[in-house]
Amino acid sequence: MSLLITTSFRLSVSLRQVAKYSVNVANTTDTLLFQSNFTKDEQEKILSTLNGSNPDQLSRFNVSQNRIKNLVSWKSKKGPFRTLHDVLEVEGLGEKVLEKICQNIISDKDVFEEKSMKTNNITNKRLKQLITPPLNGNVINNLQSAVGIHLGPIGISWAKLSCRENKLTEWSYEDFSVLPKKMFPADNFELAIKILQRLPSADIYILEGTPTMSPQGAAQPAAISSYTQHLELSSMLIALLNTSPQHNIKFKKVDSNDIQRTENKVYHLRSRVPARLFRTLVGTEKVSALAVVMQLVESHSRSDFSLPCTPITLEQQLRDKYVMDTSANKELLGQALMLVVSFIDLCIYKKSYQLSSSFAE
């Protein structure tokens, strides 16, 4: 008798669990549907949003990057979602997660805007920490183009991005492999002039903040010498960019004894922010960014684009040139591209959900 009662109880529980997913048996045969309180119109809105939104738009509804990637992958294999139950087949999407996403879509909540309002003071503080010197509103509102400049051990690279179309228009580098190991100030100055002549003109120029030297590096004379040369070349480039009429059109030399004050055109993005944003930082070490940059280069033609940034466009010639280069030079080019894309998204578009990613340790 006791066994019969226990069996009946378990059967009752199982039936209740099955009933949770069963709706309108007259409208379906053997397909179990996601049970919710959403109306037919609301469900259509949810499905339309999930099927029609790109990864960047889905992020606004508090969908993680991994889940966005899984959603895109499912649709590419099986087509658009026809029911909410289809969405439950996506890896990493359970009932509770789907319910929250649906609620955000139905209430038309823009999670990005909501979080920006709640954390406005924190965001402003972080923006000040991100860029040095701080950007003023006039620069942000009138910005049409920016050049990211990456200075590394094997060379220097630059990437020019048009802010209006988010289009990569120039992308190149200067190889340091033929330079002598020991560079004197005069040599560095000649190199800086050579680089300046190749750098494209833009409204502003972005460099990545130089990280402090580790205790291990400070104990090695060779590391100290390399670090000093890096700072020296960087400082020379900053001075030249700000005083070059080609790169700073507002600079005017009045006469040999007087130089008119002009706006600064060179800014430093906080060290390692691009690596954090694009997840190429493991602990304190940067890892290869080749896969990330390739996805960024193909961002407008890939259905599985899931990087935490605004997609870019570029001419086929620039893409082909990048693909044909060596792995080392690809890394060099990629660093400049990630730098300028990070700056535009974080400091100009002020996308605070990307901003949170960039501060993730």
Number of helices: 17
Largest sheet: 7 strands, mixed
Work out the radius of gyration.
26 Å
Structural class: alpha/beta
Regions with little confidence, pLDDT below 50 for 5+ residues = 1-32, 109-123, 213-224
Q: At CATH's second level, what is the architecture of the largest domain?
A: 2-Layer Sandwich
Q: Using the alpha-carbon principal axes, give the shape.
A: elongated
Mean pLDDT: 77
GO molecular function, one term: DNA polymerase processivity factor activity
Protein name: Transcription elongation factor, mitochondrial
InterPro entries: RuvA_2-like, TEFM
GO cellular component, one term: mitochondrial nucleoid
Commentary on this structure:
- Residues 1-32, 109-123 and 213-224 have low confidence and may be disordered.
- This protein has 17 helices and 11 strands.
- A hairpin with a 2-residue loop joins strand 2 (145-152) and strand 3.
- Helix 10 (185-198) packs across helix 12 (221-243).
- It starts with a helix and ends with a helix.
- By secondary structure, it is of the alpha/beta class.
- It is elongated and about 75 Å long.
- One of its GO terms (cellular component) is mitochondrial nucleoid.
List keywords for this structure.
DNA polymerase, domain 1; Nucleotidyltransferase, domain 5; 2 domains; 7-stranded mixed beta sheet; two-stranded antiparallel ribbon; 17 helices; 11 strands; disordered N terminus; TEFM; Transcription elongation factor, mitochondrial; DNA polymerase processivity factor activity; RuvA_2-like
